[in-house]
Amino acid sequence: MHIAERPTLRGNDVMLRLPSGGDYLQWRDLREASREFLTPWEPAWTRDELTRHAFRMRLRRYHREARERSGYSFFIFDASGKRLAGGITLGRIQRGVAQSATIGYWMGQIHSGQGVMYRALDLVKTFAFDVEGLHRLEAACLPSNARSIRLLEKSGFRQEGLLRQYLKIAGVWEDHRLYGLLADDRPSRRAHAL
What we know:
By secondary structure, this protein is α+β, with helices and mostly antiparallel strands. Helix content is about 30%, strand content about 30%. The protein has five helices and eight strands. The chain has helices at about 25-35, 35-40, 50-70, 115-130, 145-155, and strands spanning about 10, 15, 70-80, 85-95, 100-105, 135-140, 160-170, 170-180. An eight-stranded mixed beta sheet has the order 1-2-3-4-5-6-8-7, with helices on both faces.
């Protein structure tokens, strides 16, 4: 099966695609407006976090990973593909005996609590299992992140354990809850990948 280097996922009133240079201003503005909302859950932001140069470096990495099929960093848009709401990553894809990947995500504050991330995660799960042929997805979140826990559990992920000092969040090594989802945990559906 041929996998598109730049897949676009559509459905459930959202559209996911790899970011492009033309997304910079919308990305910068959404991230800046959501800074206080996002920073408790993310690695410490660098001084140049929102610069055009830093964005270009991200794009290079995102597109290299997609070419290599080692990761896909999608921006989440409304169904028209015009209004950016957040981002979701299918990363650290392992082939061979593992056939697994990790999920990470962020949402602009103005779009939170509207089910957008749930719908985006549903598309990414379908892409991961039915298009990429993966067997297992993992996601980790801070034990205090009630929204993320609800999202993962509603999406079928099961809590599997505690990862001690797993990620450095806001400058501190933090424990995370590990959640997992297997291809066998859900019915098979095909993503509408272009």
